[in-house]
Write a structure and sequence with these properties.
3-stranded antiparallel beta sheet; about 100 residues; alpha+beta
């Protein structure tokens, strides 16, 4: 796991984008509707998430669709669990994890 992943996860807006993409792939416009941010600001968030390889983009004509890069998300979760010595045999209670 790289430092860019930690930097990407440090911002609450980027974490919110990841939560949205965990539900389903979304276009930039669909994501923008959920935020009261300038498009240039959101673009910066997308750039950082892509640099950390947490999201990927697919161009469909004039539209860009973003989705989670599940393999990197899984690697990140495994590294964090290992860092904090989380028991891998005990299921994670996701309701206890704050956003």
């Amino acid at each position: 796991m790289t430092e860019s992943v930690f930097k990407a996860l440090a911002d609450p807006n980027r974490r919110r984008i990841l939560k949205l993409l965990a539900e389903r792939p979304m276009t930039a416009g669909e994501i923008a509707e959920k935020f009261n941010l300038a498009k240039s600001t959101l673009s910066g968030h997308f750039t950082m998430l892509k640099a950390a390889e947490l999201i990927q983009e697919e161009r469909r004509g004039a539209t860009i669709v973003y989705s989670l890069n599940l393999s990197v998300v899984e690697e990140t979760l495994a590294a964090v669990m290992d860092l904090f010595k989380v028991n891998k045999d005990k299921p994670i209670n996701w309701n206890e994890i704050e956003s």
